[in-house]
Every structure is written in structure tokens, then in C-alpha cells.
């Protein structure tokens, strides 16, 4: 039997300014997702969980909590952008040009905007990406800049089962 490791994510050295990563997994947001996330975050806006209230708005139905949209699209980018993250430094310029509704499917992509050495930590570098989420109709539903510290190759703490790595 041959043991092969799965995708380990990008290290600082792997990022090139201008590269675009099409994140492979879309996600359909359900009513349960929206209600649970809204309750977990103690968001009391009835637009997210009260069908009767939402029906009276210009949208006519509940909107997906925008923080859920941000969390989902960030999560979709992890395998390509931050699998080897040391720390997130910030989300900037978050824009929500179109609403997300229960039943919408969101897909995302990221473009590398900047990279530089970290002055205080030689084991990491700083990367900035622009990430955009689109719904199943191709309409942009969120966009943001994200800056993070990413480990350099050979500096990341070990993960996985050490016993499985033995010969």
C-alpha cells in the first residue's frame, strides 16, 4: 500500500501576485443554516429569521445573515489561501452588492494582490487577497480584501497522526 498525503495548502513561497484561485466547492445556504447562525451570533434582526416580517420588506423573504456570507466565503477560500495560516490580520473593504437568500448557492474565488516578508517573524510572510463570492446566477454577493500571515515552507507546526507517518 502506498500512502499519499492530501493537498497541504499553499505556503508563503507559493503565492504570486496576480494569481487567481477558483475555490472548488460551492455551498447552498439553507433556512436552518441562516437561523442557526443568526441565533448563535445573537443577531436579533427579524429579517433573518421571521418569515412574516421579511415578507413585508422589499425583499419579500428572509435574507441570509451577511456575517454568515462572510464566514462561508472565507471558509471556501481556506484550502487555497489560508490552510497554512499563522494569523488573520484583517478583513477590509467588505462589500455586499446583492443579497443572499435561503436556497442560494455561493461560489468564490480569490486573487493575490500583495505579498511581503513579515518584519518581526521570519517564519511567515504577509499575503493580501481579494475574495469575491457569487450566487448561482453569477451575481456578486460579497467582496473583501483579506490580509494574513502565512507560514513559510518547513515552518508550520506538524499536523496529522504521527504514527501514520512512520515507515
From TrEMBL:
InterPro entries registered for this protein in UniProt: HotDog_dom_sf (IPR029069), MaoC-like_dom (IPR002539), MCH/BMMD (IPR052342)
Ranges of residues in domain MaoC-like: 17-130
CDD domains recorded: FkbR2 (cd03451)
Pfam families: MaoC_dehydratas
Domain of life of the native organism: Bacteria
Coiled coil: none
Full protein name: MaoC family dehydratase
Amino acid at each position: 500500500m502506498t500512502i499519499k498525503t492530501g493537498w497541504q495548502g499553499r505556503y508563503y513561497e507559493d503565492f504570486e501576485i496576480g494569481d487567481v484561485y477558483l475555490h472548488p466547492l460551492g455551498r447552498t445556504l439553507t433556512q436552518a443554516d441562516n437561523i442557526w447562525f443568526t441565533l448563535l451570533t445573537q443577531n436579533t434582526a427579524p429579517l433573518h429569521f421571521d418569515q412574516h416580517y421579511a415578507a413585508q420588506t422589499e425583499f419579500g423573504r428572509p435574507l441570509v445573515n451577511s456575517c454568515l456570507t462572510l464566514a462561508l466565503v472565507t471558509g471556501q477560500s481556506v484550502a487555497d489561501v489560508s490552510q497554512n495560516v499563522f494569523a488573520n490580520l484583517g478583513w477590509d473593504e467588505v462589500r455586499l452588492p446583492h443579497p443572499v437568500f435561503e436556497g442560494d448557492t455561493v461560489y468564490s474565488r480569490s486573487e493575490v494582490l500583495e505579498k511581503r516578508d513579515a518584519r518581526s517573524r521570519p517564519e511567515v510572510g504577509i499575503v493580501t487577497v481579494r475574495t469575491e463570492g457569487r450566487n448561482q446566477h453569477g451575481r456578486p454577493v460579497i467582496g473583501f480584501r483579506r490580509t494574513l500571515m502565512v507560514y513559510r515552507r518547513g515552518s508550520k507546526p506538524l499536523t496529522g497522526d504521527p504514527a501514520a507517518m512512520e515507515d
